[in-house]
Amino acid sequence: MKKLIILFLFFSINAFSQWEYSINSSKRISKAIGQIEFNYKKQDSLSLVLSNSRKLGLDLSLTGNIFEKNQKFYILFEISDRKFKPSNSSIENENYRIFEMKDLVTSEKYELEEFLKILKLGRSLTLTIRLKDRVIQGFNNLNSSISPINSVIGDKF
């Protein structure tokens, strides 16, 4: 009976996990990837990717087909009743790289490693992106993010 319960819990957790961890030893890079889920039929492909490599070091980016260099947009992260917006970022090859976040209530700025501590402790992430012609809002369950994020942070190449 105990084995059956443990097996059920294992499949339940993995079935609803929105975070995965991968490592490529030959390229010396590890990644924690959080999928953003949308509540409408036409979905944009969007992922929150934390990577660690010898070349770039620790890197957080939003990866998706909506990011173009000349397009203006506003991004808002809502984590456990706190609101953050990127204060230092760049766009490269459909990747929106985030270097620093700003708390909109306290105006405090967080470098990437400090922001990751807040991200790991949160229960959920609501991501809102306002583009010129539309607003996109997605959701990520952060409960399964702790282990993949810690694994990426701890990887040394």
Show unreliable segments. 1-17
Whole-number total of structural domains? 1
Strand content: over 45%
> How helix-rich are the residues, as a percent range?
10-25%
How many extended strands? 11
- How does the helix and strand content classify structurally? alpha+beta
What is the makeup of the main sheet?
A: 11 strands, antiparallel
End-to-end distance: 43 Å
Label the overall shape. globular
One letter per element, helices H and strands E, the order comes to HEEEEEEEEEHEEH
Rg (CA only): 16 Å
- Average pLDDT: 83
How many helical elements? 3
Structural overview:
- The structure is a single chain.
- The chain has 157 residues and is an alpha+beta fold.
- It has one domain (18-154).
- Helix content is 22%, strand content 47%.
- The chain is built from 3 helices and 11 strands.
- Strands 1, 2, 3, 4, 5, 6, 7, 8, 9, 10 and 11 form an 11-stranded antiparallel sheet that branches.
- The longest helix has 15 residues, at 2-16.
- The chain starts with a helix and ends with a helix.
- The model is unreliable at 1-17 (pLDDT under 50).
